[in-house]
Write a structure and sequence with these properties.
single chain; alpha+beta; Protein Transport Mog1p, Chain A; Membrane-bound Lytic Murein Transglycosylase D, Chain A; four-stranded antiparallel sheet; 16 helices; TPR repeat-containing protein YfgC; metalloendopeptidase activity; metalloprotease
């Protein structure tokens, strides 16, 4: 969650899919352009127009030698697409995001998050991911999806299910959309199953033409599937793709297809080069955007912390933190403050309902939470014959900074969030100073090293061996090879 501002990207510009699949981004540029046609002037202009917004939406741009390396690899694979004849026609950006995500847009703009890069194990995998995204652009998938994207209003997934209730086009539906859009894995699905598989095919072709091992595409898809499963296990949730996302093939189902596409092809992986060039990348949350440790979210710059309810898991986004569970959903974000918590809460309700909405709290109560002036409002909304409770709980911090939770749950069940509402507090300067990022550390295995000894160095209190195996693309039976390089995650000093 950004310490600077909370923003929503223009609806016409972006639709990304992550957390379990190579992501995609949809724009309207390229409509009516035949597949294989080089970048048009209109596409280049639109890509440039929205570039800064894309970067801001995903936590900003990583700079330095690691970003330069990703740029060089990305430009090298992108030129294989025929969209341009020179590598410098492509702008490849390494994003400061803790979400596994990548996308490309018409105009030669290619993006990948640092978190997804840390999950990879060689340069060929990086090239394969970026090639997949460029493949979407080369095939003009976004142009073909234009009408569907407009119908869904790009960020509009109203097929959210809460306790069996389908959220419709209502105030509640818009609230569900608002909350879910902060969680990258719940964003609008941009591409169909066939389009994703076509992009995989093009990505493998680009790997072959660039001299990389074409099996790398299957490797990174397998790592994504393993990471999905591990994340779900650690969060205590189901790792399967939800019903409404069934049109988008998950990584596990695409691994075998990618291997078939690769056939008996061979090529370089540049594993050691890759590991040496990404050594030191920030892993997981950046403290500048707040960090999640277990069930606690701490933001050292905003000087706040809170704890999610038992059985809920959190995801940190650029604009807000989402809190998700089987019995409700919530998000924590901030907004402009005029000096009145009551007015702030009423404005939050009105914003949830959208333009012309009469959504408002039934009443507003004032209280104090851990020394902070606070207030909350609640409303009960009927949607498709069922009732759902909506709460906005706001806190005034020193300096007239205000942050709030928006929560929804089936009628009568909003109390599940009461412990979280009561947990919000201001942290001390010494607590803030102790929040440091995790980083990737590439180490060489010694003769006496095992999976257990290397995993014990992972900066996590739990699931060290599982995390180590997923991070390094190791199966449950793979063993350490002395003299070989491996990735571990450590605390920055």
């Amino acid at each position: 969650m950004s310490a600077v501002r909370f923003r929503k990207i223009r609806a016409i510009a972006l639709s990304c899919v992550a957390a379990g699949s190579l992501a995609a981004c949809t724009t309207v540029a390229g409509a009516g352009v035949a597949p294989g046609t080089p970048i048009t002037q209109a596409e280049a202009q639109q890509g440039a127009q929205y570039h800064d917004e894309f970067v801001a939406e995903f936590g900003g741009e990583v700079s330095g030698p690691q970003a330069s390396y990703v740029r060089d690899v990305g430009q090298g694979i992108a030129v294989q697409s025929g969209l341009a004849t020179t590598p410098d026609a492509f702008t490849v950006t390494l994003l400061n995001s803790s979400v596994n995500n990548a996308f490309a847009v018409p105009g030669g703009y290619v993006y990948v998050t640092r978190q997804l890069v840390t999950l990879m194990n060689n340069e060929a995998e990086l090239a394969g991911v970026l090639g997949h995204e460029v493949g979407h652009v080369a095939a003009r998938h976004s142009a073909r999806r234009q009408q569907t994207a407009q119908r869904n209003q790009i960020l509009g997934v109203l097929g959210q299910v809460l306790s069996g209730v389908l959220l419709g086009d209502s105030a509640l539906g818009r609230l569900g959309q608002e909350i879910s859009s902060t969680a990258p894995q719940l964003a609008t699905l941009s591409y169909s199953r066939s389009q994703e598989l076509e992009a995989d095919k093009l990505g493998v072709q680009y790997l072959n033409s660039a001299g990389y091992d074409p099996r790398a595409m299957a490797g990174v898809l397998a790592s994504l599937a393993a990471q999905n499963s591990l994340d779900a296990s650690l969060d205590g949730r189901n790792a399967t793709v939800p019903e409404w996302a069934s049109t988008h093939p998950d990584p596990a189902s695409r691994v075998q297809n990618a291997l078939q596409l690769a056939g008996n092809g061979t090529g370089v992986t540049n594993r050691d080069t890759f590991l040496s060039r990404i050594d030191g990348l920030v892993y997981g949350d950046d403290p500048a955007q707040g960090i999640i440790e277990g069930s606690t979210f701490t933001h050292p710059e905003l000087r706040l912390a809170f704890t999610a309810p038992d059985g809920f898991y959190m995801m940190n986004g650029t604009r807000a933190v989402s809190i998700n569970g089987d019995t409700g959903k919530a998000q924590m974000s901030g907004g402009s403050f005029s000096g009145s918590l009551d007015a702030y809460i009423r404005q939050a309700f009105q914003a949830l309902g959208g333009e012309g909405s009469t959504l408002a709290p039934q009443n507003i109560e004032r209280t104090t939470i851990n020394g902070l002036p606070a207030a909350y409002g609640e409303a009960r909304v009927t949607s498709n014959g069922s009732q759902v409770d909506v709460v906005v709980f706001a806190y005034q911090f020193p300096g007239n900074q205000v942050y709030h939770f928006t929560a929804l749950a089936p009628a009568g069940g909003i109390g599940v969030f009461n412990p979280m509402f009561r947990s919000m507090r201001q942290i001390t300067s010494s607590e803030a100073a102790q929040v440091v990022p995790r980083r990737l550390d590439v180490v060489t295995a010694g003769r006496g090293d095992t999976v257990r000894t290397l995993a014990a160095r992972m900066a996590y209190p739990n699931a060290q061996e599982q995390r180590f195996r997923v991070l390094n693309g190791l199966s449950s039976s793979d063993q350490i090879i002395p003299g070989r390089q491996y990735k571990i995650v450590i605390r920055s000093k």
